[in-house]
Amino acid sequence: MGEGKDFFEMLIWSATEGLLDVRPGEQILDVARRNGLTSRRLARSGALVVAFDFSKEMIIAARERAETDSVTYLVLNAIDREVIEALGAGDFDAPFATWH
């Protein structure tokens, strides 16, 4: 996916921006983040982002591309309910996840 291909730009991200309507200071939970592309974009909108992926390698790549400290990257498994609940149910303004 790199930094976003046409499919991502035109179909996914344009719709995502409209649906989430991120406001500065909102807290977004970014699920299965791979290289952190969406996390960085959400942070550029002023959001505070908690982003996670089960792949340690992907989180390392995301951290290497980090632009701001507004994103916290974690290695977590999205199907581990206890781990996800420990993040703080109700603490987030919106969750975000895409599989493409």
Summary of the model, kept short:
The protein is 38% helix and 20% strand.
Structural commentary:
- With 100 residues, the chain is α/β, with parallel strands linked by helices.
- The chain has a single domain, classed as 3-Layer(aba) Sandwich (Rossmann fold), CATH 3.40.50.150.
- It is built from four helices and four strands, in the order H-E-H-E-H-E-H-E.
- A four-stranded parallel sheet has the order 3-2-1-4, with helices on one face.
- Helix 3 links the parallel strand 2 and strand 3.
- The longest helix is centred in the first third of the chain and has 15 residues.
- The chain starts with 5 loop residues before the first helix and ends with a strand.
- The mean pLDDT is 87.
Main-sheet strand order equals 3-2-1-4
- The string of secondary-structure elements, in order, is HEHEHEHE
CATH architecture: 3-Layer(aba) Sandwich
Per the CATH scheme, the topology name is Rossmann fold
| CATH C-level label | Alpha Beta
What is the count of distinct domains? 1
CATH superfamily: Vaccinia Virus protein VP39
- Tell me the Rg in angstroms: 13 Å
Strand content: 15-25%
Globally, the shape reads globular
* pLDDT < 50 runs, ≥5 residues: none
Q: Sheet with the most strands?
A: 4 strands, parallel
Q: Output mean pLDDT.
A: 87
Estimated structural class: alpha/beta
Give the beta-strand count. 4
Percent helix range: 25-40%
Distance from first to last alpha carbon = 9 Å
Count helical runs.
4
